Amino acid sequence: MSAISTLDTDILILGSGGAGLFAALHAHQTNPNLHITIAVKGLLGKCGCTRMVQGGYNVALAEGDSVERHFMDTIEGGKWLSNQELAWTLVSKAVERIHELENELGCFFDRNPDGTVHQKAFAGQTFDRTVHKGDLTGIEIINRLAEQVWSRGIHRLEEHRAIELIHSTDGKSLAGVLMLNMQTGQFTLVRAKAVLLATGGGPTMYKYHTPSGDKSCDGLAMALRAGLILRDMEMVQFHPTGLLAGPGTRMTGTVLEEGLRGAGGYLLNGNHERFMGNYDPRNERATRDIVSRSINSEIRAGRATPNGGVYIQMNHLGPENVRKQFKGMVERCADSGFDLANDLVEVVPTAHYMMGGLVFMKDCSTDLPGLFAAGEDTGGVHGANRLGGNGVANSTVFGGIAGETMAQWVGTQQLRECNMEEVMASIREHEAPLEKPPGDIEFIRDTLAECMWDDVGISRTQETLLRARHTLKQLATQLKQMGVGNIQREYSITWQDWMNLQNLILVSQAVTEAAIARENSRGAHYRDDFPEPGSLEGSYFTAVNMLNQHLRIEKRPVNFTMVKPGETILVES
Ligand SMILES: Cc1cc2nc3c(=O)[nH]c(=O)nc-3n(C[C@H](O)[C@H](O)[C@H](O)COP(=O)(O)OP(=O)(O)OC[C@H]3O[C@@H](n4cnc5c(N)ncnc54)[C@H](O)[C@@H]3O)c2cc1C
């Protein structure tokens, strides 16, 4: 067993997306004397999905819009499964956060000729409220956030991977996190008074997916192993328009943003017929779950394009206009040899976002004292379906709140002793593959991707889900028996892949078990064998946790704390 270095800090933040960076800034603002550390699998400012945000940020700013309206869109889009307190926090704090991004952090967003912030149309919304910087909004947000973090002397552990949450010796709270320095391959035990889980979820276990490659559901897997509860795990969002680039390239799945449909883009099947009107009166502006399923139905009915998807058409909006409005998307398509402004481009649904995640409170605390959570690692904000534009609002709103809560919390706390048995057990488990002969990791990855795509994908049945349960169990066993060989530990991609797969398989099992438990169809979760949504008044959410290596599922009632199904908080004028 290799030596372990140690580090003590007041606040340890895992992940440097919108949630992690906002948390660091707000914690520092609340108490500049704190020792704050951001640990991240990649390079700060260069990894995660917030940087990849294209379309933009939902916030009720314009005349005629309201936070109440944003709230109702979020609740109805989420098919009444959201925790309403969390959803309200999202929409109300988003207003504050967007002003902070513009006026304090220096983001430039697009503006109307009269100087007001331009807000574009996104699907599932009753008002055009998506603030953006062209169609590459995330780069603007992350660059400004990273500059501010760099300038404040916040401690950084880059290319450090969190591998285990470590309890205190009495088991009652979190004491620290075991990290792997990916540069050296050595372990570091970081003790902290408060830890933020902000590793961004990310459904990269699916054959086609959009999130960045550094995400492998590590936070969710660590939370499960630490005995915490994840909710809504069956709710995996498929973005309807992933680029379908054909064989021989890994570009397939790269997302073509929702603003294309919001601006009036059409979807055509392989027979060149516009089909969304057959499924939803909102046509292409229906929510993502409906559009993805409709595309899936066209494909299954044999009306697919040559590469097995459908087409997106933009040229009827004027090629020059498309080139101007969607510069990033036009260039992305051109990189793969397609002309979005003039021609049809083939698209296919692609796994995009996990609505499910760690159960947390609106101050970002969790059931484990010392552990806080924000961003895509959390569950409950979006319910059964996330509206496009609510993702980056979620990570920045709750990241900021988490920073403030943690800064206040650590004032009353001491560093706790780590349970060293947990530390040693985790090191043994993570070093085990280095001591076994190399196996076929590619096979595990490909089988996992096919299994999740085919059997736990856009539509599911009991038969496919039980098959997935069986496959995943086999994969977990095979991976455990498989080694990577006695390779060098520094920058070892194969070893990292092994760890990624371990986490992805565990979280895939949680997704599958939750999908088996939900015998109805809500939002992103569609069961061919149970197509009805079930009683809205009797809505429940799934809660999964792990005990003695077994996943346990419970159904818990949704509390309608602000508005009941069939009602609205909007006041009629
Ligand atoms: C292509 C694309 C386009 C999108 N467009 C939009 C949009 O237009 N509007 C919108 O609202 N949302 C959009 N989203 C969703 C949005 O990006 C996410 O909801 C949000 O940014 C997540 O923020 P986060 O901080 O939770 O996670 P991320 O920004 O993903 O950051 C996660 C961080 O955790 C780190 N990490 C992961 N594992 C570990 C580990 N084990 N140890 C240490 N660090 C770790 C990662 O390296 C990364 O730094 C898009 C997503 C994608 C993929």
Mean pLDDT: 95
How is the main sheet built?
7 strands, mixed
Structural class: alpha/beta
| Percent in strands | 15-25%
Which parts are unreliable, with pLDDT below 50 for 5 consecutive residues or more?
none
Total of DSSP H or I helical runs spanning 4+ residues? 14
Distance from N terminus to C terminus (CA atoms, Å) equals 69 Å
Overall shape? globular
The kinds of small molecule bound in this structure are: flavin-adenine dinucleotide
Helix content: 25-40%
Descriptors for this entry?
573 residues, alpha/beta, 34% helix, globular
Task: Please write out the topology.
Elements: E1 4-14, H1 18-30, E2 36-40, E3 57-58, H2 67-77, H3 84-104, E4 119-120, E5 130-131, H4 137-150, E6 155-158, E7 160-167, E8 174-181, E9 186-197, H5 218-225, E10 230-231, E11 236-243, H6 259-262, E12 266-268, H7 288-300, E13 310-313, H8 319-325, H9 327-335, E14 345-354, E15 357-359, E16 371-373, E17 378-379, H10 390-410, H11 420-431, H12 441-455, H13 462-481, H14 493-517, E18 540-547, E19 550-557
Parallel strand pairs: 1-2, 1-9, 2-6, 9-16, 15-17
Antiparallel strand pairs: 3-5, 4-5, 7-8, 8-9, 10-15, 10-18, 11-14, 12-13, 13-14, 18-19
Bound molecules: flavin-adenine dinucleotide (FAD).
